[in-house]
Amino acid sequence: AAMLYDFVAVRMRPVLVAHHVVSLLAHAYACLRARARPAFPWYALGVAALEIGSAAASAFWLIPPSRTTLVCFLVLMTLSNIAGLACTGPWWREARNDGPAAHVGAAVSVALIGIRQWEAAKVSGRIRLAQAM
Q1: Are 84 and 113 in contact (CB under 8 A)?
Q2: What is the pLDDT along the chain (133 residues), one digit of tens a residue?
């Protein structure tokens, strides 16, 4: 519900709009497709794991930067991404009989988790570079 509210109440950057659209489509698929329902516990666990990394990113951008906030952000984001990937495999094994949607869902999940980790590493590099100057 909060994501739907954001479309009305918040001016979002295109990347956040894309995030919300993909998330809403994934949630609808995981909840509504009968053949995908046995995989739902893995989906829910993966989403919860990834939200920990998102919370770490939010805190990182809201708290004044320091070595501690950077390390906490990187560690929590990395662990959350590993946990998200660890849930993707079992989710796919349970949902793969649902056809192409399950395969696309797994591929998109792996790609987006990789992008999250890449972006976290880039942020870390920029912060360290700025601190060195």
Answers
A1: yes
A2: 677 887 788 888 888 788 888 888 888 888 887 666 788 899 999 999 999 999 999 899 898 878 888 899 999 999 999 999 999 999 999 888 888 888 998 999 999 999 999 999 988 877 665 565 4
